[in-house]
Amino acid sequence: MRFRYLPVLLALGLGLKAADTPPDNFAKFRGAHPRLIARPVDWETLKNKIGRDKVLAGYVNALRRDAFALTEKSPVTYEMTGKRLLSVSRESVHRITTLAFCQRLQPHPALLAQAIREMEA
After folding, report:
1. Residue 72: per-residue pLDDT
2. How far apart are the first and last CA of the chain?
3. How far apart are CA 118 and CA 79, in angstroms?
4. How far is CA 57 from CA 64, 82, 95, in A?
5. For position 12, what pLDDT does the model report?
6. Residue, of 33 and 121, whose pLDDT is higher
7. Do the Cβ atoms of 59 and 75 come closer than 8 Å?
8. The pTM is what?
9. Residue 7 Rama label (left phi>0; alpha psi -120 to 50; beta)
10. Residue 121 confidence (pLDDT)
């Protein structure tokens, strides 16, 4: 509650006026759907960087190991833990995002099938 006026203070500190037009936040998405993780050109750039950067390649390999470990688990079941489902929802989003990311980089039928099972659960 104590930070309620923080946006106003920041706007004043940056010299913004009410008449200023907001930036076009969707300009960078022209030609691509804004809900995608990355544009096709971004995936190609990432693939090229993985080939050159050993640290990034190690990170992606670890992520792929995690994704393939998820294929051996059953999908998340939406059961109440106490009063909330938030932890279950977070786990589901984590699994689906990991599987989708790895599937997009290096397609594999097991990753795709598990991602579909997770989304249908």
Report:
1. 94
2. 37
3. 14
4. 10, 40, 20
5. 37
6. 121
7. no
8. 0.68
9. alpha
10. 84
